[in-house]
Amino acid sequence: MRQRHLLMIGVLSVGTSLVLGATGFATGFLGGGGDIGIDRAVQVAKTAAASYPGGGLKADEVIGFSRNYYATMRETDSGIGAFEVLIDRRSGTVTREPGPDMMWNTKYSMSGAAMNGDGMMGGSLLTPSRVMTVTAQRAQEIAQRWLDTNRAGSTTKSPDSFYGFYTVDFENPGQLAGMLSVNGYTGQVWYHSWHGRFIQLRELGA
């Protein structure tokens, strides 16, 4: 299953820029050089949230990994996660995260946009909804069962709710070690294999 996911990630990365454009999300380029650092990554994330044409989003957190920075964009009114982005550690370029955010997001993705009548092709049969058939508690149980089988000794944190899926951080031991997502309708698990080693976390708050 993991090998299949890695193959899908490679295919999805090719179309990331197209998905960014389709959802009206702006990217930025800060130039080459060394690691931009967590402070700059936070500013990039905040700028990305503010530049979303639809408005109403904020950057919620930025996590530094050895391969990238990860950031979540959240709706300011509902508090629900909108989508997830990756920030290149060297250039500061922002791209939509591959995998669950592109495939399962029923509102802020090509599939979600298609179901909203924006005239774009997509494969989702689900309309955006705050209510998923898999509850947050059930998603955490599913995630923990996956970890018990594949990452023994790891423990889940509370799921972060998005449209169509949950993202669940996990610790091992006592420190953030990675994340995985659980489909909010099927319970399918997708491990985020592209981050690398955890370095630091910056919670941005309200």
**Number of domains as seen in the coordinates:** 1
Kindly name the structural category.
alpha+beta
3D shape:
globular
Strand content range: 25-35%
In total, the number of strands is 10
The average pLDDT value, as a whole number, equals 81
Uncertain parts? 1-27, 112-126
Strand order of the largest sheet: 4-3-2-1-10
Measured on Cα atoms, how large is the radius of gyration? 16 Å
User: Major sheet: size, sense and barrel closure?
Assistant: 5 strands, antiparallel
Distance between the termini: 37 Å
Number of helices: 6
Order of helical and strand elements:
HHHEEEEHHHEEEEEE
Query: Percent of residues in helical segments?
Result: 25-40%
Structure notes:
With 206 residues, the chain is of the alpha+beta class. The protein has one domain (2-203). The chain is built from 6 helices and 10 strands. It has helices at 2-14, 16-22, 37-50, 100-103, 110-115, 136-150, and strands at residues 57-65, 69-75, 81-87, 94-96, 155-156, 160-161, 165-171, 176-183, 189-191, 198-203. It has a 5-stranded antiparallel sheet with strand order 4-3-2-1-10. It is globular and about 40 Å long.
